[in-house]
Design a protein that fits this description.
With 346 residues, this protein is of the alpha/beta class. 36% of the residues lie in helices and 15% in strands. Helix 2 (36-48) packs across helix 3 and helix 7 (150-160) crosses helix 8. 47% of the residues are buried. It binds pyridoxal-5'-phosphate.
Length: 346
């Protein structure tokens, strides 16, 4: 893979991360916006398959970075875009989406089961009827989401030679499952550590309000392949926010909250496994979080201010043994049913 001096657009220029040494054996994969990778791959594939035409309307449900990536690409390529979101969408993101020409459609009420995520899906279905020639990228289900990360795996392999462990947060599952699966073609021993948060259903928890956004989920995405993970961690918002600011203070890396969550776990893992080359996924930049994660007043107001981080996670056999505190489980590349004992119940 050759580095190009001139890129056709900013999207191609920034879709791969910068690799930054965060310790002797720990490398941060620092993205401007990780979701550009799946968004571009999904749109390219849809165009190739004839599902997306110049006058199609793209409709997607998101209150996060996937929407921003779609909005950048839609602006560059001239597609009309409707982003369905809910009242928790933050103002800085909403403004950027609208500035890029996207229509932001906010649902007002959560569904009784599946909360806002379900009511957003219902709204997507409604809009789909209004625009018969629409394209729905569907990041939670579309196999081109994890498929996009083969490109990242190739980049990591070329840059580092060998990767022994990959640590990253899980939302749709696309980045961790896609990258780990592609890396295992060369390194079958690759140890995959998934980072989730309390109040998320992904690895057996119950759906509850979450302050830390981007990781975790209220619904079970098809793109989450549980059998990819060797180990799963649950971190609290307060821990993730503290770690995000440490990443900034120690390494000058100004990143979002999911980067802090991954960094806390990866640092702990890398120190305990000094013979392994560990890669930590840092999915987005910090600007959007200036008035929240990077504001001491906001942290105090939300009661998520921490003076320091715990030294280590609690090792648990059951998900609920670590409610509210940093916990880890040896998932052992098992399915959800094998670990939890029953199929996921929405
Ligand atoms: C900021 C941020 N970090 C991490 C993730 C999790 O990535 P994935 O959806 O690939 O599991 C997301 C997902 O939207 C995100 O927005």
């Amino acid at each position: 893979m050759k580095l190009k001096a001139i890129h056709p657009t900013i999207a191609e220029a920034i879709e791969l991360p910068r690799l930054v040494a965060l310790g002797d054996n720990l490398f941060g994969a620092a993205f401007n916006l990780m979701k550009l990778l799946p968004a571009r791959h999904i749109l390219d594939r849809a165009r190739e398959e004839g599902l997306l035409h110049p006058d199609s309307v793209i409709i997607e449900t998101t209150s996060g970075t996937f929407g921003l990536a779609l909005a950048i690409l839609s602006a560059l390529r001239g597609y009309r875009l409707i982003i369905v979101s809910d009242p928790v969408i933050d103002e800085p993101l909403k403004r950027r989406l609208e500035d890029l020409g996207a229509v932001v459609d906010i649902v007002q009420d959560p569904a009784p089961i599946g909360g806002y995520q379900q009511s957003r899906l219902d709204r997507v279905a409604e809009l789909g009827q209004q625009y018969p020639d629409h394209f729905w990228p569907s990041q939670y289900e579309n196999p081109d989401n994890p498929g996009a990360y083969a490109h990242l795996a190739e980049f990591l392999e070329e840059a580092l030679g060998e990767v022994d462990a990959l640590v990253g947060t899980v939302g749709s599952g696309g980045s961790m499952c896609g990258t780990a699966t592609a890396l295992r073609k060369s390194f079958p021993h690759l140890y995959a550590v998934g980072v989730d948060t309390h109040g998320s259903v992904l690895f057996g928890g119950k759906d509850e309000k979450r302050l830390l956004r981007g990781l975790g989920n209220s619904l079970m995405p098809k793109n989450l392949d549980h059998t990819v993970f060797d180990e799963v961690h649950w971190v609290s918002s307060a821990e993730a926010f503290h770690a995000t600011r440490l990443l900034h203070r120690r390494h000058g890396l100004f990143m979002g909250g999911t980067s802090g969550a991954a960094y806390m776990v990866a640092k702990w893992y890398a120190e305990r496994n000094p013979d392994q080359a560990v890669v930590c996924m840092l999915p987005d930049e910090g600007h959007r979080y200036q008035d929240t994660i990077y504001s001491e007043a906001w942290l105090q107001e939300k009661d998520v201010w921490l003076p320091g981080l715990p030294d280590e996670p609690k090792l648990v056999d059951q998900r609920d043994e670590c409610d509210g505190e940093w916990g880890r489980m040896l998932w052992g590349r098992r399915s959800y049913v094998d670990v939890i004992g029953e199929e996921f119940q929405p």
